[in-house]
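Researcher: Sequence recovery benchmark, item below. Answer with residues only.
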């Protein structure tokens, strides 16, 4: 299990490094204001690469095999179906509506209490919407 974990993380790191390199080929001449279209993908890829590097390091440092966490197949299936519905509705309904619904349903699947789940989904959805529309000037 340890070797598989390290192998998957190395694969993710290589893919992210390749995609990071590809962001330098984005056309930045159209957008003279702001950070440009390559900024956000670079930040995300750098964070993912950092986290996979940390995961590889901690996996190498681990002496014992970690006890695998078993999850319910029903919850995993519900998660996947909810995610597919979110993706299919992304261009048809407003972002705030589907993101609040998606996060709220995820909270129910993860057995979080209703009020904290609802508050979290509303606050996170509005925050993400505001960051993208006002900060990055990207219409959702």
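Model:
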């Amino acid at each position: 299990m340890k070797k598989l974990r390290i192998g998957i993380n190395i694969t993710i790191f290589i893919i992210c490094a390749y995609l990071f390199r590809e962001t330098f080929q984005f056309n930045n001449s159209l957008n003279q204001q702001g950070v440009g279209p390559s900024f956000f993908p670079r930040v995300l890829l750098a964070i993912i690469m950092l986290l996979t590097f940390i995961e590889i390091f901690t996996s190498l440092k681990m002496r014992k095999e970690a006890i695998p966490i078993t999850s319910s197949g029903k919850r995993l299936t519900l998660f996947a179906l909810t995610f597919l519905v979110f993706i299919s509705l992304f261009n048809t309904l407003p972002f705030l509506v589907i993101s609040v619904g998606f996060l709220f349903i995820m909270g129910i699947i993860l057995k979080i209490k209703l009020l904290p789940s609802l508050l979290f989904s509303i606050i996170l959805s509005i925050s993400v919407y505001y960051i993208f529309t006002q900060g990055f000037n990207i219409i959702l």
